Amino acid sequence: MNYSKLAEFYEEVSSTTKRLKKIDILAKFLKKLSDKDREVMYLLLGDIYPEYDERRIGISNQLAIKAISKATGTDAKRVLFEWKNLGDIGKVAEKFTLNKKQSTLQSSILTTEKVLENLRKLPELEGKGTVGKKLNLITELLTSAKPIEALYLVRTLIGDLRIGVQESTIKYGMLKVFFKNNKKYESTLQQAIDNSNDLAVVFDIAKKGKIKDLEKVHLEVGKPIKAMLAQKVTKIEDGFKALGSPCAIEYKYDGFRLIIHKQGKKVNLFTRRLENVTKQFPEAVEYILKYVKGDSFILDSEAVGYSKKTKEYTEFQSISQRIRRKYNIEKIQKDFPVEINVFDILYYNGKSKLEEPFEKRTALIKKIIKNSPYKIISAKQIITGNVQKAKEFYKKALKDNQEGIMMKNLKAPYKPGRRVGNMLKIKPEERDLDLVITGAEYGTGKRSGWMSSFILSCKKGDKYLEIGKVGTGIKEKAEQGISFEELTKKLKPLIIKEKGKRVDFKPKIVVSVTYQEIQRSPNYNSGWALRFPRFTALRTDKPLSEISSLEEVENDFKHQKRNWEYG
Ligand code: AMP
User: Fold this and answer.
1) Per the count of CB atoms within 10 A, which of 96, 157, 447, 501 is most buried?
2) Residues 102, 248: one domain?
3) Active site residue 5
4) Which of 443, 408, 439, 410 is nearest to 423 (CA)?
């Protein structure tokens, strides 16, 4: 279809912040699409592939500036200047395209197919001359773009579409236009989205209005799916109250989530961000092939680091570098070994286990895994209704350097990508949050040249609201942990605005912080401020969609006084 139709939709849907209005606009847009337009689904979320596919556009602001400069014949310095002025590189593209259009004729019509074709070439490029080739591909699109197309094209390129459309908006849009908004079908639609992680596939089927066919969208081994997420409680008693008694209680391991797919001899490992990290963990692949029975399966697990010397578990931060490391794997594997703790199973020997009650799934795990400590084990677990026993288990988990416990409803199904009330986490210090860095200030004295104070934000819908500043916990030297220098380097490519010492970023870098207290505050636009925040970890494993919400912050505030028992 004509890209300008999509751009007009982007414009219309951005013009309202109301959720229902957005769904309305989307439904109308979906209705106009033909079968051939299925891949427009990806563009609606600013992507070029389905969610399970790791390939991303990944264009830096710098390259976008060059492309705008080249395509519109504007000096790069002017583009940069205007960017600082407008704070939105898309708007800059729109402005200069408008200037140019007054003097030249548009060369050709841009289609969504052409946009996808060129954008999909970007992640494939590697090696010498890559930058030039990327520039050509982008410039080709921009020279054919109308001003409004240039705006959204550039925003798509840099991964910041800002139209407030999420997967759920699309789900409700489809429900409305293809199923007459019959709420009865919402869960089937959701399930098809969860199982396929591919909105184009769901669009194909939903468009025909056949709910029965949507039910047939199954999990596929090897195709990553989203992990089920937990809610928080502060007390074991509250956990039992919410889940019923008895329930399963497990260690809440302080590692990172690893979803394991196996088909025959082929193992694939995915993070909760759906990144494939199989190459980074060759030992895990070996353990899975050796110690887990079954022809095909999908397991949910936590990889935890332990000390080579003492065999004690170590904290997440110590193994986080393994997630990204692509070279010298052998050495890092020896220095930072991991143990895989399997706590759920989603699929086994050709059958989905999502609908089976947790007690059956956990029993199956125990049956198929040959427990091999420091390699792969089924997660430490008790099944009890006794508060005292649960408390003892909790203490044991903490003594074992783990974060706390998970309490799980024995009857509950597995819900991919949902934060469910059937799985609850309890940690001693409820006072920690996962936030995104949205701003910073450059330091002075020995920290000059580095950013030294970082503005943190929580989320509200698709907005980010500031909630505090952190400098504590970040190290002077890289050997001691994450350093100012390192963080500055990570953040520089994300700068969207600079004024004096203050810079604003595209929200991307997620961090965990602990704090002593939450207070009401007029200083930040969330209305809250963290007292004595301390940086504890860079959360490269957490997607932006999973950072703490304003609601969680408010909830933490309400509960902070009741939280001493396990502190
Ligand atoms: P949080 O990241 O604080 O929302 O806590 C949820 C995370 O705890 C999950 O994403 C897992 O990575 C981790 N986790 C550790 N142990 C378990 C367990 N036994 N069951 C489920 N999740 C666990």
Assistant:
1) 157
2) no
3) no
4) 408
Same domain, 179 and 143: no
Neighbours of 37 (CB within 10 A): 19
CATH of the domain at 350: 3.30.470.30
Pair 270, 379 in one domain: yes
Residue 17: is its pLDDT beyond 80?
yes
Pick from 107, 19, 113: nearest CA to 71: 107
pTM over 0.85: no
Is residue 221 in a domain? no
pLDDT score of 319: 84
Domain span at 554:
432-566
Could you please report the per-residue DSSP string of 435-504? EEEEEEEEB-GGGBTSEEEEEEEEEETTEEEEEEEE-TT-BSSGGGSSBHHHHHHHHGGGEEEEETTEEE
Q: What is the pLDDT of residue 102?
A: 58
Mean pLDDT, residues 395-408 taken together:
91
pLDDT number for residue 562: 39
One domain for residues 400 and 438: no
Count other C-beta atoms under 10 Å from residue 285's C-beta.
18
Q: What is the CATH number of the domain that holds 447?
A: 2.40.50.140
| Mean pLDDT of all residues belonging to the chain | 92
141 and 192 together in one domain: no
By percentage, how much of the chain surpasses pLDDT 70? 97
Question: Considering only CA atoms, which residue is closest to atom 11 of ligand 1?
Answer: 257
Ligand 1 neighbour 155 (Cβ under 6 A): no
Which pLDDT does position 519 carry in this prediction? Answer: 84
Q: Which helix (H) or strand (E) holds 178?
A: helix 167-178
Whether residue 220 is contained in a domain is answered as: no
Q: Would you say residue 287 has pLDDT above 60? A: yes
Is the distance from the beta carbon of residue 316 to the nearest atom of ligand 1 less than 6 Å?
no
How far apart are alpha carbons 248 and 517 in whole angstroms? 31
Beta-bridge partner residues of 231: 424
Which of 426, 455, 486 is the endpoint of a domain?
A: 426
Q: At which of 377, 397, 426 does a domain end?
A: 426
Same structural domain for residues 128 and 208? no
Residues 472 and 498 occupy one common structural domain: yes
CA distance linking residue 268 with residue 260, whole number of Å? 6
pLDDT tens across 490-546, in order? Answer: 999 999 998 878 999 999 999 999 887 788 888 899 999 998 788 989 998 889 999
- Report phi then psi at 262, rounded to 5: -135, 135
Q: What is the pLDDT of residue 269?
A: 97
Cα(326)–Cα(282) distance, integer angstroms = 11
Residue with tokens 């007029």: 522
Q: Which member of 95, 100, 171, 252 is catalytic?
A: 252
Residue nearest to atom 17 of ligand 1 (CA): 252
Structural contact between residues 286 and 376, judged by C-beta atoms closer than 8 angstroms: no
Domains in the chain, number: 4
Assigned domain for 198 exists: yes
Cα-trace Rg, the chain:
25
Does residue 564 have a pLDDT over 60? no
Amino acid, single-letter form, for residue 347: Y
Instruction: Kindly state if the Cβ of 302 falls inside 6 Å of ligand 1.
Output: yes
- Is 343 a pocket residue for ligand 1 (Cβ < 6 Å)? yes
Are 98 and 193 in a shared domain?
Answer: no
